[in-house]
Structures are given as C-alpha cells and as structure tokens.
Amino acid sequence: MQKLAVLTSGGDSPGMNAAIRAAVRRAAYHGVQMFGVYHGYEGLMKGDIQEMTLGSVGDIIHRGGTILYSARSEAFKTEAGQQKAVEQLHKFGIEGLIVIGGDGSFRGAQKLTEKGFPTIGVPGTIDNDIPCTDFTIGFDTALNTIVEAIDKIRDTATSHERTYIIEVMGRDAGDLALWAGLAAGAESIIIPEESHDMNDIIERLHAGQRRGKKHSIIIVAEGVGSAASYAEAITRETGWETRVTVLGHIQRGGSPTAMDRMLASRMGAAAVDLLLEGKKDRMVGIQNNRIVDVDFNEALSQKHQLDLSVYQLARTLSI
Ligand code: ADP
Fold first, then answer.
1. Does 108 contact ligand 1 (Cβ within 6 A)?
2. Band of residue 94 on the pLDDT scale cut at 50, 70, 90
3. Does 3.40.50.450 match the CATH number of domain 3-138+256-301?
4. How much distance in Å is there from the Cα of 75 to the middle of ligand 1?
C-alpha cells in the first residue's frame, strides 16, 4: 500500500488528534502517503479529502476534539452512500482506511470492508464502551475532568453540608460514573449495569450522617435517569436539601491526559502497521497494556463488560 487515509467519526473524544498525528507520522516513517478525510463518513462520500504531511499534524498532540472534524451521517448507512464512499477512495488512489470512533463508526467501517475496501478501527470514545479493549481513547481525560469537577463541588457540599447529585455521561455504559465515583469518593454510584435500591441509597446517606459526615456526593450515569429525579426522591425521603449538577459536554473536551496521548499514539501507529501488514476488518485494542488487534465481528458481537469488582470496592470504601 502506498496511500492510506484516516477519518474521525461519531462523538469526538480527547486524544483523537494524537491518534491522527501518530497515523500520519507512522505512515511517513514507512514512506507511505496519508490522506485526511474531513467530517467523517459524510465528508468521505463527498470526497472532502486532503493529503496530510508531517507539518499538518504539528502542534495538535495536546489539543482536544479532532482537526478532521467529526460527523454523523444517515446517508452513509445506505448502500448507495457506502458505494459513493468507496468510489471516492478509489478516485484518490487510497488503498486502506483508518476509522477513529466508536462502535457505530466501526459498523460503518465493516460495510466498506464488505465492499472490498480494507479498514482498521481505532477506539475513540469517552464512554469506554467498546468490547475487547481495556480502554478507549478519551476515557482517561473525561474521567479526570469529572473528578476535578466533583472535587470542586465537594468543597461547596462540605461548606453547606449538602447532598449533591452529579450526573455524568454514559448512556449504556457506567464506566465514567463508576471510576469517577471511586476516584472522587462518592457515597453512592448509580449505573445502568447494576440494579439499585432507593432504600439502600437513603440508608447509606443516613449512615454517613450518623458518622458526622458533612456532605454527600452521589454520581448518576445519564443512562439510568436524570439526577433531578433522584434529588427529588432523596429530598422527599429525608427532608434534606439536595443540589443537582449535570456536567454535560464539559466532559467531552479539553486537552488529553498523558495516558490518552500515549494510548492514542500507540493505537494510531498500530493501525498503520496493521494495514501495511495486509490486515483488515479489525480493531486495535489494548489488553493488559499490550496493543492487540481483534476482528470487528468479534468485538462488535460482544457486550461491553464493566468491571463490577470496582463497584463492590467503591461500596466498601464509601461506608
Ligand atoms: P460512534 O461511532 O461514536 O458509536 P455513531 O453510532 O453515531 O457514533 O456512528 C457514527 C456514524 O457511523 C453514523 O453516523 C453512520 O454514518 C455510521 N454508522 C453507524 N452505524 C452504521 C451501520 N450499521 N452501517 C453503516 N454505517 C453506520
């Protein structure tokens, strides 16, 4: 292969730029040309493609978001859309494509491989919800953003002796809520993977109060329900004043942590190596701190498993 391309798709995540940089520079190291596809699959269908040079990825390793922009595309989900995408890739002489994104983006990449076009996926999402990889690019940064926010809220919670309910991202995956809950010392963590009992949450609040705790922090993953509804229920049951903070999109941006830059650099470079080795239809992952590659089908047919021992540990430590 002499010409490869890279795109970012779906929700952006901090570290995507570091992955793009690694892909471009690794390709250059191998003497291979790298093209950037702008605006995800939408841009791919339109031929919004430009050659990237060593310089075009300078000064981006520390920037959040993605210099290639990201998009969601309904048109690409159609046969005609995918056909158009393959035609554009052929028009530019591109022989392999790296897709940085989440599981939806990987399903799109698979469709291209089914049409005979080699693709490799790099998991970029703050949710950490991709099977077969211990971590995804952006998770560590989002986690640190959340923990920093909770630490600040804790100051006010303590000063005013209040209960705070904090809603974090994670529609189907509770990883961010769970890890942030443990790292920030939350009293209760409410995640989609684990059933919860309102009586238990209230009892834990009372137990804390009996011990002389001045504040309480409860983390709710957005997929379980709104923080406001939990706050109402707690106030109804206890008569205590509660406050709600929905962290929202602040969790998606910001300069990537060193861990995310490392992960992105390793994964972006590995994606190039895999294409040049003639591999396709695979996703790069990290398992036990080793870079691995896994068949898309294998990864996408599984359900993401959250480490429930972390949940049990958080419960033990927050009594
Ligand atoms: P993420 O990659 O973060 O999970 P999405 O699920 O929104 O984000 O997927 C990003 C894009 O990937 C979609 O807008 C669509 O263009 C493409 N895509 C998702 N699922 C499929 C599919 N089953 N077939 C083809 N393309 C898909």
1. yes
2. very high
3. yes
4. 10
72 Cβ closer than 6 Å to some ligand 1 atom:
yes
- In this predicted structure, the answer to whether residue 319 has a pLDDT above a threshold of 80 is no
Token pair, residue 171, equals: 């529609």
296 Cβ inside 6 Å of ligand 1? no
What per-residue confidence (pLDDT) applies to 212? Answer: 87
DSSP-derived secondary structure for 26-88: HHHHTT-EEEEETTHHHHHHHT-EEEE-TGGGTT-TT--S-TT-----SGGGSHHHHHHHHHH
Q: What is the pTM of this model?
A: 0.96
Each residue's pLDDT tens digit, 253-293: 999 999 999 999 999 999 999 999 999 999 999 999 999 99
Q: How far is the CA of 82 from the centre of ligand 1 (A)?
A: 12
- Residue closest via CA to ligand 1's atom 16 equals 73
CATH number of 140-252: 3.40.50.460
Give me the amino acid identity at 199: N
186 C-beta neighbours (distance < 10 Å), count:
25
Mean pLDDT computed over 142-162: 93
- Asked if residue 315 has its Cβ within 6 Å of ligand 1, the reply is no
- The model's pLDDT over 57-89, given as tens digits with 9 standing for 90+, comes to 999 999 999 999 999 999 999 999 999 999 999
Annotated catalytic sites, by residue?
127
Domain segments of the chain as ranges: 3-138+256-301, 140-252
Asked, colleague to colleague, whether 3-138+256-301 and 140-252 share their fold, the answer is yes
Amino acid at 240: W
Q: Which atom of ligand 1 is nearest to the CA of 76?
A: 16
